[in-house]
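EI: anyone free to look at a 205-residue chain?
SC: sure, send it
EI:
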Amino acid sequence: MTALAKVTKMRADATRRSIRREETKLELAAYAVAAISELGYARMGLRDIAAISGRSVGALTYHFDDKNDLICFCVRNYKERFVSDIDQIIALDIPQDDKLAAILDGLAGTIEADAATHRLWYDIRSQALFEEAFQKVVSDIEASLIDMTGRIVDAVGMRPETTTAAYHILDGLFQRHLHLACRNTGWNPEDMVDEMSSGLAFLME
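SC: here you go
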């Protein structure tokens, strides 16, 4: 084997290992969310994730420094996908009124599909007031959500200066309806869409 072929093989092997590591981390993150759904953030530990995933605690600490590192990975990874999904709706070639309805429907749909992960986001956002380990990831995610809101504002014809207010309206109502959904109180996604639409209407006047 030539030197060039060896180098090429080494790079290919490194790429495959990197892909496998990322896939393993994503798999462990899914188990972590499942554990949190059952036990809650405060009660969940690495041993609980290890038990659910069928892996050792050592395998977890190989990929993550500690529980907080794993939680940060879970939330960052999910929120990146969340923003990407909403951006796909924003990019639809449909009238502005229909686009706003589609975006709000999309937000409600993520509560139906991923309530546990959204709840984890709000948990660590609160914990960031006390845990330095969460501060950067919370700052990064919140900045990405505000940027996403700016794209929503632009897509539906609102004034750019309303972005911050729109973010707080959407975030506040999203959190409220997430709590309703998590408490199994007969949550209705249509109510969430109506309330968000009414809240944003004040900024469109």
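EI: Helices lie at 3-39, 46-53, 57-63, 67-90, 96-127, 132-155, 163-182, 189-204.
SC: 👍
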